[in-house]
Amino acid sequence: MLLYFISFLLIVSFFVLNMFVGVVVENFHKCRQHQEAEEARRREEKRLRRLEKKRRKAQRRPYYADYSPARKYIHTLCTSHYLDLFITFIIGVNVITMSMEHYNQPKSLDEALKYCNYVFTIVFVFEAVL
């Protein structure tokens, strides 16, 4: 009887444990499927919102559409990548010329650095005016 009782308890507890684990795993799979469907729906809504935003942006006229030709040219110049590169280059050369100043420097170098400083000042003022 003892052998039957112990084997019965082990087998029944094993089946109950398996059924419990099966229910938990099944609920986990249902929740996961629901979550994946929700994420797919959200991604689709986000994609549609982005497309709608792009469509609205494409239909809008740019803010500079009504500018005069001269102002439009200045706007194009100021937003140009090449102007940014040019100003960056000028800043680098300005830093180099400022670092060339030293004690007991020759008068010719002093004059050259002074004229370079004037040129850089004119370029930076012109950029600010644009």
From TrEMBL:
It is a multi-pass membrane protein. It is found in: Membrane. It holds the Pfam family Ion_trans. Keywords: Coiled coil, Membrane, Transmembrane, Transmembrane helix. SUPFAM superfamilies: Voltage-gated potassium channels. InterPro entries: Ion_trans_dom, VGCC_Ca_Na, Volt_channel_dom_sf. Residues 2-35, 81-130 form the Ion transport domain. GO terms for cellular component: plasma membrane. Residues 34-61 form a coiled coil. GO terms for molecular function: monoatomic cation channel activity. The chain crosses the membrane at residues 6-25, 81-100. This is Voltage-dependent T-type calcium channel subunit alpha-1H. The lineage of its organism: Eukaryota, Metazoa, Chordata, Craniata, Vertebrata. The gene is CACNA1H.
